């Protein structure tokens, strides 16, 4: 299949290109940018007039809910959501049921996901067996099965000795470790940021120190073990400051933030909206402002959807009992564009955080439109906007605090390995 | 030309006088009925203190129009049991207010009898209610409301307004 | 987003919290409660306002006392009252909160009085009723988690107004476990909305929630300083399970610092009133000499509570 994408505005942050260029795709790869290669005859011409053409998006956290939670979502439903959202590569955290702690589970997931039109799936293996924080997983085996990093999703390792050994072991083989920073004790009961909103609503609060204490522990151990550490879903200004300071002192640490924490604060809990029940909790307005600036400046390496489809039964309960998480694959691009517009950022900078910068965190050569790269592309209408409704979401999870909002950026087509995975109206 | 309310009060007091005994209690209905009852109580020199009812809690239109905005407390400062009671109101119209007042009185006890004295009977009854005393009978079209007003000096006057 | 307890005309559709209610509505409830107090003195303590209506006491957390006051209020308004202690029935069988509500709606409920251990549960029910187009069914929050107990807050305001006539010249001190107290939150919102110029909270740092000052109160850790010149002292109940452990070392030590004794009360104004939402822990948050003394208005609170609940039910049912 040879595809000619014509007249689009090409934005390729990896190569610093923002110009009107045609794209030529052949054999699943980018054949050329600008002028057609000799003898190129397209089977299909896509008219991208008025559209933006960028690398397919790379999402550092998308829960596909398989295995174990098929009643919340299935691989098919979430892959459709990914394609509809322009996402062509995603990392999935290990908190499935059972957790991704055995090579067989990872191989099965990779096998199920190896399907034309499905996004590239990179599983994060469990760092400890059952995520229980006691015994190390067979990381080398898991790596061979396809895990690109190891982590604990939202379950902290309580025993710091186990944590240190896990980091030492991962460092032995050069495996990156992805950890969410949450102190197991200070983070135990709180369901909302410990501040005025939690006090007003009578919700148990989780202090910022639940995050900073854990970051401090992780950074100390990262320094001592030399492991490549990635801190996921940071939520507070203080956490960001610590990471920036650690980098300055020579610790190799990267971090990401979710679309929810980039746009929302604890005030968005409103009248107990269970869709705003997230882990980590939405923090104060000034935290959000710091995260928005940090991502713009590159202190935060990447933006992710933290896609977590939750069934209605688990959300239609009082706020504190609601299962945390929000669906997000289809909102990653719109919320990136919204953030970019509000911060007056160039699209090159903004889109880098969900393409080449995210690829760098993953350690994969994706997120670029260089000739020869995999033909993973996203075509979107920058003028188009849509209202987030249950019906408009292809994900089986309808749980998002952005329900009812009008967002910019409609994906018109998604190509994965040169295959048209999604086309608006089809 | 509406009759003079002060004159009607005097006339009503005179017509009540022969039927009273020393146990009789007057109960005025908020707000106009209480004003009339106060006049009667003074003119007749009754020993039993005056009762006052706000029938809002007993109105049959509660389900449609909700709680009345300016609720007043009912105050029955005597023992209702076996006592002759005269309900006093300013204007008798559909009879629904009187029904509500009788229901409320029975929640205080079982009176010996209940009579009704009104300043004006304007017709238009929707319930089988008949006053024993009415100082004046008028035929007033349904589109109008006849109401009693009290000036700052305390003078009572009747006024006809659009419903 | 519209406040889910108000209808589109700004009238009261449900009573879920005092937070955000305009002063006019609070005053209307207090004004309307006055005539209901007199009903208790009649031979027939019953009004026909809710005749033929079904009031469901939906208690997901047991509380005989609160349930009884709502039951009396509803029965004095001639409603049919159905008590459901769900903590012990459906949820243990796996039925969700909203399943239970749907079932009761199908039984033609007119009003739900909801007590739940989770903050926000009555909001969830109100939002569900709106989504199901069942706006004629009203919800009264009888206490949700740490969030709100609006009728308790209102009866406390009624009591204060009864004894002090006005709000705009008062110093009110709330003492004890504010962190876990839905009563304290409702009191704070009511007092500030009604124009009390100085609302204080007094307690150890372990029992005061973060940023409580942003709710418009002054924070004191020294009880004597906090009680100085107070017109109203509102004591909070200290739950048994919180008396020992990481929040407090012992009930004795709590009493020493924050228990209301005649000695500490001397720092308040001579005509100060002492309130408590009950049930009291004598010798923990309040000394018996004070609880039974001349400043206490704890029993009148209970009496007024019935009238206030009758007023709220009538206003909702007639809306």
- What CATH calls the topology of chain B is Rossmann fold
Shape of chain A: globular
Largest interface by Cβ-Cβ < 8 Å: A-C, 23 and 29 residues
Helix content of chain A: 25-40%
Structural class of chain B: alpha/beta
* Low confidence ranges of chain A: none
The proportion of residues in beta strands of chain B is 25-35%
Outline the low-pLDDT stretches of chain B: none
Label the CATH architecture of chain B: 3-Layer(aba) Sandwich
For the residues shown, what is the average pLDDT of chain B? 93
Please name the CATH architecture of the largest domain in chain A.
Alpha-Beta Barrel
Q: What is the average of the pLDDT values of chain A?
A: 96
Order of helices and strands of chain B: HEHEHEHEEEE
Work out the number of β strands of chain A.
20
Count of discrete alpha- or pi-helical segments spanning 4 or more residues of chain B: 4
User: What's the assembly state of these chains?
Assistant: heterotrimer
CATH fold-level assignment of the largest domain in chain A:
TIM Barrel
Short description:
The complex is a heterotrimer of chains A (426), B (163) and C (319). Chain B is α/β, with parallel strands linked by helices and 163 residues long.
């Amino acid at each position: 299949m040879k595809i000619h994408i014509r007249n689009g505005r090409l934005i390729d942050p990896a190569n610093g290109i923002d110009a009107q260029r045609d794209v030529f795709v052949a054999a699943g790869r980018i054949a050329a940018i600008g002028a057609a290669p000799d003898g190129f005859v397209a089977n299909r011409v896509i008219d991208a007039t008025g559209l933006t053409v960028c690398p397919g998006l790379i999402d550092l956290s998308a829960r596909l809910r398989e295995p174990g939670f098929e009643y919340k979502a299935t691989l098919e439903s979430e892959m459709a959501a990914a394609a509809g959202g322009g996402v062509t590569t995603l990392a999935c955290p290990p908190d499935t049921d059972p957790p991704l702690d055995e090579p067989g589970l990872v191989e099965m997931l990779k096998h199920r996901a190896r399907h034309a039109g499905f996004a590239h799936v990179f599983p994060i293996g469990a760092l400890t067996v059952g995520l229980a924080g006691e015994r190390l997983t067979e990381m080398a085996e898991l790596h061979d099965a396809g895990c690109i990093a190891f982590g604990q999703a939202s379950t902290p390792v309580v025993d710091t000795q186990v944590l240190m050994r896990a980091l030492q072991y991962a460092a032995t083989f050069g495996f990156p470790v992805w950890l969410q920073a949450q102190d197991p004790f200070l983070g135990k009961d709180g369901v909302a940021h410990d501040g005025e909103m939690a006090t007003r609503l009578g919700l148990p609060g989780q202090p910022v120190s639940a995050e900073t204490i854990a970051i401090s522990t992780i950074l100390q151990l990262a320094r001592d073990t030399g492991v490549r550490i990635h801190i996921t879903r940071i939520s507070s200004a203080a956490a960001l400051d610590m990471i920036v300071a650690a980098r300055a002192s020579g610790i190799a640490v990267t971090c990401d933030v979710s679309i929810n924490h980039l746009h929302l604060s604890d005030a968005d809990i409103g009248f107990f909206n269970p869709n705003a029940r997230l882990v980590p909790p939405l923090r104060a307005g000034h935290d959000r402002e710091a995260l928005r600036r940090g991502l713009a400046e590159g202190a935060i390496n990447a933006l992710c959807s933290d896609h977590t489809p939750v069934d209605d039964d688990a959300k239609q309960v009082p706020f504190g009992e609601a299962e945390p998480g929000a669906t997000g694959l289809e909102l990653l691009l719109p919320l990136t564009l919204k953030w970019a517009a509000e911060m007056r950022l160039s699209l090159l900078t903004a889109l880098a955080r969900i393409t080449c910068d995210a690829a760098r965190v993953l350690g994969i050569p994706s997120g670029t439109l260089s000739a020869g790269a995999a033909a993973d592309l996203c075509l979107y209408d920058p003028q188009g906007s849509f209202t987030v409704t249950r019906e408009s979401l292809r994900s089986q999870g309808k749980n998002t605090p952005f329900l009812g909002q009008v967002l910019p950026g409609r994906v018109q087509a998604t190509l994965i390995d040169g295959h048209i995975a999604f086309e608006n109206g089809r | 030309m509406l009759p003079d309310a002060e004159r009607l009060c005097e006339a009503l007091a005179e017509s009540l006088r022969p039927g009273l005994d020393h146990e009789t209690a007057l109960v005025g209905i908020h707000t106009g009925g209480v004003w009339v009852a106060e006049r009667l109580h003074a003119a007749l020199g009754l020993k039993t203190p005056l009762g006052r009812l706000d029938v809002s809690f007993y109105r049959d239109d509660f389900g449609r129009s909700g709680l009345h905005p300016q609720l007043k407390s009912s105050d029955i400062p005597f023992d209702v049991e076996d006592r002759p009671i005269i309900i006093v109101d300013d204007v008798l119209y559909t009879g629904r207010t009187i029904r509500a007042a009788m229901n409320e009185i029975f929640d205080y006890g079982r009176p010996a009898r209940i009579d009704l004295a009104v300043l004006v009977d304007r017709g238009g009854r929707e319930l089988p209610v008949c006053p024993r005393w009415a100082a004046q009978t008028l035929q007033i079209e349904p589109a109008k409301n006849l109401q009693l007003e009290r000036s700052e000096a305390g003078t009572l006057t009747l006024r006809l307004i659009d419903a | 987003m519209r406040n889910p307890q108000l209808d589109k005309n700004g009238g009261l559709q449900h009573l879920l919290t005092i937070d955000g209610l305009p002063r006019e509505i609070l005053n209307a409830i207090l004004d309307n409660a006055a005539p209901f107090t007199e009903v208790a003195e009649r031979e027939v303590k019953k009004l026909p306002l809710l005749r033929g209506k079904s009031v469901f006491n939906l208690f997901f957390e047991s509380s005989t006392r609160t349930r009884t006051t709502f039951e009396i209020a509803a029965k004095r308004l001639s409603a049919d009252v159905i008590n459901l202690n769900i903590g012990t029935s459906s949820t243990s069988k796996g039925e969700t909160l909203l399943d239970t509500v749907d079932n009761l709606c199908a039984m033609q409920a007119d009003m739900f009085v909801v007590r739940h251990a989770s903050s926000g549960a009555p909001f969830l029910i109100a939002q569900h009723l709106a989504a199901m187009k069942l706006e004629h069914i009203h919800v009264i929050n009888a206490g949700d988690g740490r969030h709100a107990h609006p009728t308790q807050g209102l009866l406390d305001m009624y009591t204060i107004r009864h004894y002090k006539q006005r709000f705009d010249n008062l110093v009110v001190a709330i003492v004890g476990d504010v962190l876990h107290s839905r009563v304290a939150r409702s009191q704070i919102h009511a007092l500030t909305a009604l124009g009390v110029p100085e609302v204080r909270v007094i307690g150890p740092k372990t029992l005061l929630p973060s940023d409580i000052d942003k709710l418009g109160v002054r924070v004191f850790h020294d009880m004597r300083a906090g009680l100085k010149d107070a017109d109203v002292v509102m004591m909070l109940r200290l739950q048994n399970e919180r008396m020992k452990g990481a929040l407090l070392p012992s009930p004795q030590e709590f009493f020493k610092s924050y228990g209301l004794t005649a000695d500490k009360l001397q720092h308040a104004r001579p005509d100060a009133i002492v309130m408590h939402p009950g049930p009291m822990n004598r010798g923990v948050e309040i000394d018996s000499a004070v609880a039974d003394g001349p400043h206490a208005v704890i029993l009148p609170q209970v009496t007024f509570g019935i009238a206030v609940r009758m007023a709220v039910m009538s206003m909702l049912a007639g809306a």
